[in-house]
């Protein structure tokens, strides 16, 4: 049997990190490090961990992901998303390991109105987006043509804090939900993204790529689809009222792209890994939701 290739995973306690552990193919040996086990802002820890583990690949799923809070603590977002990425890159280069780094549609301004290609010019509109773009730049600077950056969008999964789990809580607690209807993008399941990540490593790809599920929608329509599916599988007994609102009606410090659909064709060309419609992925994630009680009628 061929020797397993070894992967070191950072940020293993996050929603993507958890799924990467569940989905890891047999041909890889995955060593997972949570935030408390490896803080990527600590250059010395990164260097020592990689020297000890000697992985063939590092997957960086660690990040500062609180888009709102990043507006009030941009230095902290930059420290984790850019300096942390630099620490990992330098530690990986020192032992000859490859690094797969995850980035975001928020590096774009959302004004293009056709699916963003990897070579399109970024123009982040938020502190979070700027810190993620800075992370991309340090990875490209360190690895040159060997850099591997996968941008994704609207990530959600059965665990952690994300749009799906937030909506499920709101459906439980509130009779009326007001959801933004004028921001368009593509929800992406951590199940499919983790598959794409392993496909990229297997194909040994290099460069910047985009991955999301297929199709496009608004947050409002996504919330309606979540409610519909929750009714179908018995997690919700009575539907709530979901009202569409505009971005202007939703108080927010961070500016988010209005339209940030990603063009995945170059990724599919090098990996043969095809995205499926987000509507098909949603039920697969929702059947894994760990809710003890169905969402009962709103009584308060
Ligand atoms: N969520 C989205 O909608 C979205 C969209 C596009 C792209 N992305 C990108 O996808 C990737 C995965 O995101 P996610 O949604 O899985 O995020 P997540 O659930 O917030 O997980 C991020 C993980 O990183 C850890 N972390 C934070 N600071 C760290 C540090 N200094 N050292 C080590 N670990 C640290 C966090 O630990 P603590 O919880 O202990 O801080 C958490 O476990 C990120 O690169 C993100 O930018 C996300």
How does this model look, in words?
α7 (219-232) crosses α9 (278-286). 37% of the residues lie in helices and 17% in strands. It contains nine helices and twelve strands. The chain has a domain at 5-161 and 188-216 and 260-277: Rossmann fold (3-Layer(aba) Sandwich), CATH 3.40.50.720. The protein has 300 residues and is an alpha/beta fold. α3 links the parallel β3 and β4 (98-104). Strands 2-1-3-4-5-10 form a six-stranded parallel sheet, sandwiched between helices. A two-stranded parallel ribbon has the order 6-9. It has helices at residues 15-22, 43-53, 74-95, 127-143, 163-173, 190-202, 219-232, 265-271, 278-286, and strands spanning 5-10, 28-33, 57-60, 98-104, 148-152, 155-156, 176-180, 184-185, 188-189, 207-210, 217-218, 241-245. The protein is globular and about 55 Å long. The model is unreliable at 292-300 (pLDDT under 50).
CATH topology of one domain: Rossmann fold
Radius of gyration: 19 Å
N-to-C terminal Cα separation, in Å? 61 Å
Assigned CATH superfamily of one domain: NAD(P)-binding Rossmann-like Domain
Indicate the low-confidence ranges by residue numbers: 292-300
Report the count of strand segments.
12
CATH top level class name of one domain: Alpha Beta
Q: From the 3D coordinates, which CATH architecture of one domain would you assign? A: 3-Layer(aba) Sandwich
Number of helices: 9
> What structural class is derived from the secondary structure elements?
alpha/beta
- Sequence of secondary-structure elements: EHEHEHEHEEHEEEHEEHEHH
- How much helical structure, as a percent, in the residues? 25-40%
Major β-sheet profile: 6 strands, parallel
Strand content: 15-25%
Mean pLDDT metric:
95
Bound molecules: NADP nicotinamide-adenine-dinucleotide phosphate
Strand order of the largest sheet: 2-1-3-4-5-10
**Overall 3D form:** globular
């Amino acid at each position: 049997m061929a020797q397993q290739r070894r992967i070191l995973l950072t940020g293993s306690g996050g929603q993507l990190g958890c799924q990467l552990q569940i989905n890891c193919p047999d041909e890889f040996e995955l060593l997972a490090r949570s935030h408390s086990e490896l803080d990527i802002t600590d250059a010395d820890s990164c260097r020592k961990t990689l020297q000890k583990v000697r992985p063939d690949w590092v997957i960086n799923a660690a990040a500062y992901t609180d888009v709102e809070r990043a507006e009030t603590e941009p230095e902290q977002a930059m420290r984790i998303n850019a300096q942390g990425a630099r620490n990992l890159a330098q530690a990986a280069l020192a032992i000859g390991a490859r690094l797969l780094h995850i980035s975001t549609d928020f590096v774009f301004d959302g004004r293009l109105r056709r699916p963003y290609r990897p070579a399109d010019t970024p123009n982040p509109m938020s502190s979070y987006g700027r810190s993620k773009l800075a992370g991309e730049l340090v990875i490209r600077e360190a690895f040159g043509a060997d850099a591997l950056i996968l941008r994704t969008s609207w990530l959600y999964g059965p665990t952690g804090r994300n749009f799906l789990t937030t909506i499920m809580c709101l459906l439980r607690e509130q009779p009326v939900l007001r959801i933004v209807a004028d921001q368009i993008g593509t929800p992406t399941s951590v199940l499919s993204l983790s598959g794409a990540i392993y496909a990229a490593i297997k194909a040994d790809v290099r460069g910047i790529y985009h991955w999301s599920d297929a199709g496009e929608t608004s947050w409002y329509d996504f919330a309606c689809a979540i409610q519909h599916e929750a009714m179908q599988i018995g997690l919700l007994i009575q539907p709530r009222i979901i009202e569409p609102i505009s971005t202007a009606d939703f108080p927010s410090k961070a500016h988010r792209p209005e339209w940030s659909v990603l063009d995945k064709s170059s990724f599919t060309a090098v990996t043969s890994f095809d995205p499926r419609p987000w509507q098909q992925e949603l039920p697969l994630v929702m059947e894994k939701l760990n809710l003890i009680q169905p969402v009962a009628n709103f009584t308060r």
